Amino acid sequence: MDTKKKINRKVSVAPMMDCTDRHDRFFLRLISKNVMLYTEMVATKSAIHGDRNKILSFSPEEKPLALQVGGSDKNELAEVAKIAEDMGYDEININLGCPSKKVQKNKFGACLMKEPDLVAECIHSMVKVCKIPVTAKTRIGFDDVEDFEYLNNFIHKLRDVGTKTFILHARKAMLSGLSPKQNLNIPKLNYNMVYEIKKANPDLEIIINGGITKVSEINDHMKFCDGVMIGRSIYQNPYSLVEIEKEIFKTNDNPSREEVVKKLLEYLDDEVKKGTKVNHIMRHTIGLYHGQVGSKDWKRYLSDNMMARDSDFQKAKHIMTIVQNNEKANQVSS
Ligand SMILES: Cc1cc2nc3c(=O)[nH]c(=O)nc-3n(C[C@H](O)[C@H](O)[C@H](O)COP(=O)(O)O)c2cc1C
Predict the structure, then answer these.
(1) What is the CA(221)–ligand 1 centre distance, in A?
(2) 295 and 229: one domain?
(3) Where residue 277 sits, what CATH number does that domain have?
(4) Which of 2, 27, 43, 190 sees the fewest Cβ atoms within 10 Å?
């Protein structure tokens, strides 16, 4: 019997370094109760030897939450899987898709697509030590390999050792010649490859990722896949999660932007008392008014004040005033 807890992965927010830290996740969770959240990638060595409280702790409100890990040492990965489970994470996800040079040097991320046996050993060691799902996030290929058979065999290797959920970024990774940013844009999206994988593996949970921005696109992909993962467009426009809540999860008690900020300021208050800098929280809210009247004022205000290293808590109070003014302006204009 499968004792693993069922997680709703219809829509998840992608792991993004320097973006989806615990403050961002807390903020996103204020907007959406139903999306699945992922941490930024954490290297196994940092998780094991680093300041665990700083690197791995999270607020219970962020759940359901997956820890994304980067590594290729099976013992370290097993240790981190156990740590993740003990800390209350709902899933552990291995990064097999990052093409950056630094990540390659440490032998994790997309270069591991070349080593299916090694990845299978790693996953096997993780699955053995924990009950939470061990999932994989990978690309559809690498360099000149963009081949259904290769990807399908890779997935089967991991399935055979216990991974049932695959997040497929629908573009290949170029392991040399492109910067990480170019690697998110230049290799062409190939959604069909992901659809074909789902078709060939109906028992696996296949989550599609890459370039998805609209609810209509989510609905289209859901005809062929089990869920979608969205990165940049949610970071740039976090309040778009409300539309996802309404249209995909059919919720109708969603908070206004003002309510979100009010709750975030309570969190900010607590966090500042613990020594967190205001800008570490508020920087994630730059896109809150995306597409709204006053969004430029909001962005300007944040960049003038919140990005300053010596930001003090009083500035948050000013922000509250701006939010309320913006909210009024929006009400007047709508
Ligand atoms: C700033 C940034 C940081 C990222 N960091 C990670 C990461 O830590 N782990 C990971 O698997 N993917 C990472 N990615 C890739 C995203 O998870 C996602 O696969 C990619 O952005 C494509 O989805 P999108 O088109 O919806 O943004 C990152 C992407 C961006 C833009």
Answers:
(1) 19
(2) no
(3) 1.20.120.1460
(4) 2
**134-154: average pLDDT:** 98
Strand partners, 13: 37, 230
Question: What token pair was written down for 99?
Answer: 């093409």
How far is the C-alpha of 219 from the C-alpha of 256, rounded, in Å?
24
Identify each DSSP E strand in the chain by its residue range: 11-13, 36-43, 65-70, 91-96, 134-139, 165-169, 205-209, 227-230
Residues 31 and 111 in one domain: yes
Partners of 67 in beta bridges: 92
Q: Which atom of ligand 1 is nearest to the CA of 213?
A: 26
Burial of 185-220, coded b for 16+ CB within 10 Å and e otherwise, reads eebebbbebbbbbbeebeebbbbbbbbbeeeebbee
130 is catalytic: no
Per residue in 72-84, pLDDT (tens digit) is 999 999 999 999 9
What residues does ligand 1 touch, defined as CB less than 6 Å away? 14-19, 40-41, 68, 95, 97-98, 137, 169, 184, 209-212, 230-233
Residue nearest to atom 5 of ligand 1 (CA): 16
Give the model confidence (pLDDT) of 313-322 as tens digits: 556 566 666 6
> 300 and 233 in one domain?
no
Residue 328, pLDDT above cutoff 80: no
